[in-house]
Amino acid sequence: MLEIKDISYCAGNRKILNNVSFTFEKDKTYAILGNNGVGKSTLARIIMGTEGYRNIHTGKIFFEGKDISELKVDQRARSGITMIWQEPARFEGISVRDYLTLGGKENLSDESILKTLSSVGLNHFYLFRKVDKTLSGGERKRIELASVMIIKPKVVILDEPDSGIDMMSNSMILNVIDFLRSNGSTVISITHREEIAMLSDEALLLCAGEIYAYGSPQSVSKSYKDMCDSCSHINIPLSQ
Amino acid sequence: MRIDPNYSKEFEYIARAYEQAGGKVDSLLTKDMVSIIISGDKVLGRNSIEGVTIDYKTEGTSLKLWMRIADNVKILKPVHMCVGFLEKYGEQNLEYFFDIGCNSEVSFLSHCSFPNAQKIKHSMVSHILARSGSKVGYEDIHFHNEEGWVDLNTDYLADVGTGSSYSTRFRLTKTRVGSMKVLMNVDLAQDAKAFLETKVWAKKDDKVDINEIVNLNGKGSSGIAKTYVIAQDESQAKVVNEAYGNAPYSKGHIECTEIVKGNGVEVSTIPILKVKNELAELTHEASVGRINALQLETLMAKGLTEEEATELIIRGFLT
User: Residue A235 has what pLDDT?
Assistant: First the structure.
């Protein structure tokens, strides 16, 4: 469904991704694991086509058989790919209600929006709050999760969906991922949290810009713990 | 409100301009509300309620207006001020003196419009005395002219008493600016609070000059001064925001955000923080540049085009 082929990306002289190839299949959930700086978020941005990443990497991205490597973020979004950033942007003067109905969801009823907000742990008071600096990091992240639940994309990349959200709300994040999967979304979660990885169908371990391990979340998580917890070669491939 | 019969035609024009600027004419005419209608150097009509006195006098091309609100008066509905200048050329000079009594509450909503301006000059100085324990809000919305040129010079000078709170907001976002100089200066006594905010959208060869000053003179006083400017085409914007921590436990924050669209603009922001008391605390935040890429891409990731996302961000920014 979503194929990344021979993706390499350099920041200055530093190689962040090195010939990464992988195919994400329809209706599956994936976890991408790896220490800080191994290229997880870079890979997410390349898939989404954000500025500074699109057209700068080598390799190709195919979505539903079409080469989308040259498409801009909005074009990729309209074809069904979306993303939640690790630290989502704030917007002056835009209400939560208006924000959640962007992208053609303007006719959504308040009742339906409230139901979605409730599933991410936010009550009706949030409907007319602004998506600005008055929200905490966790509240902002919850609104972003509500947004993708409304969009129901074909592919969603969640860059550290749990960051900024308290540990007590783990089950909420798992429920959101479950909701997305049951609505036919392919979910790619970048995470350090084992519970989120375990919910995935498959997991990838990135190390030094390469896929170091791939398989069941249990086996990849074990590799991550065994290899990365006591890493003596941070971001230098073992082969070197 | 009774409109002077000599000015009924002028009132019609002013009312039309007022509505164009976002005001509601019905509000001006309601009996239980305080309202004032000014055209050029004339007061076309005014309405008052118990506890509020309004006086005025014309001197040459200048209009001076005094409003006194007695102690312990809470005005529940905003005081509506409809200000306009219908001429194509000329000058309008206004000077207001607002005296808000102890423990009184009032909010002013002023709409200022120049629908026919070709080349006019508008000067306004507003002196606001917020006596102790009072709450005062002042919102000034300007509506200029896309074709003509307005030379605007407006000062909001506030003296805020012990335990009082004061806010002033200036908006010029619906039409082009012309040339504007806005000065907001607030002096805060003990435990007084202030919030100053200016939002402007500069286009073509508009010139914007904004200076917001917070003087934290009283112990425990606090103030925030914020400026938002969108500058496009060949417009120029200069923002200087200042905070002076002159008293212990005073807190001040100044903030300026300028979004630039186009290569011909020239914008600057200068924050000035000066502490004269070691227990004062001042902070500032500023950003000047194009629309934040993360904001744009977050919206684009929901399917909005770059143009749609830009428009939404600007609209929200100026709300």
Answer: 58
pLDDT in tens, B258-300: 999 888 999 999 999 999 999 999 999 998 988 889 999 999 9
Contact assessment for residue B7 and residue B39, using Cβ atoms and an 8 Å cutoff: yes
This prediction has a pTM of 0.81
Q: What is the pLDDT of residue A233?
A: 59
User: Using the beta-carbon criterion (under 8 Å), do B301 and A82 form an inter-chain contact?
Assistant: yes
Domain assignment of residue A236, yes or no: no
Number of Cβ atoms within 10 Å of the Cβ of A163: 16
Domain ranges, residue B80: 5-292
Establish if B35 belongs to a structural domain.
yes
**Residue B298 is nearest to which of A51, A52, A89, comparing CB atoms?**
A89
CATH of the domain at A161: 3.40.50.300
Q: Does A134 contact chain B (CB < 8 Å)?
A: no
Q: Which of A73, A94, A147 sits opposite B297 (nearest CB)?
A: A73
Q: Which chain A residues have a beta carbon less than 8 Å from that of B317?
A: 92-93
Domain that holds residue A7: 2-228
For residue A61, tell me if it sits in a domain.
yes
* Chain B, nearest residue to A78 by Cα: B303
A156 touching B (Cβ < 8 Å): no
Report the alpha-carbon distance of residue A192 to residue A162 in Å, rounded.
9
Please tell me if residue A48 touches chain B, with a CB cutoff of 8 Å: yes
Domain count, chain B: 1
**Closest C-alpha to B200, from B221, B163, B175, B229:** B229
Q: Is B302 on the interface with A (CB under 8 A)?
A: yes
Average pLDDT over residues A84-109: 90
ipTM of the complex: 0.92
Neighbours of A238 (CB within 10 A): 12
Whether residues B302 and A77 touch (CB distance < 8 A) is answered with: yes
pLDDT tens per residue, range A186-225: 999 998 888 888 889 999 998 888 888 899 999 988 888 8
Residues of B with Cβ-Cβ distance to A104 under 8 angstroms: 303
What was the pLDDT predicted at A60? 92
pLDDT classification of A236: cutoffs 50, 70, 90: low
DSSP string, chain B: ----GGGHHHHHHHHHHHHHTT--HHHHH-TTS-EEEEETTEEEEEE--TTEEEEEEEETTEEEEEEEE-TT-B--SPEEEEEE---SEEEEEEEEEEEEPTT-EEEEEEEEE-TT-SEEEEEEEEEEEE-TT-EEEEEEEEE--SSSEEEEEEEEEEEE-TT-EEEEEEEE-SS---EEEEEEEEEE-TT-EEEEEEEEEE-TT-EEEEEEEEEE-STT-EEEEEEEEEEETT-EEEEEEEEEE-STT-EEEEEEEEEEESSS-EEEEEEEEEESSTT-EEEEEEEEES--HHHHHHHHTTT--HHHHHHHHHHHHH-
Give the C-alpha separation, B242 to B225, whole Å: 8
pLDDT band at A240 (very low <50, low <70, confident <90, very high): very low
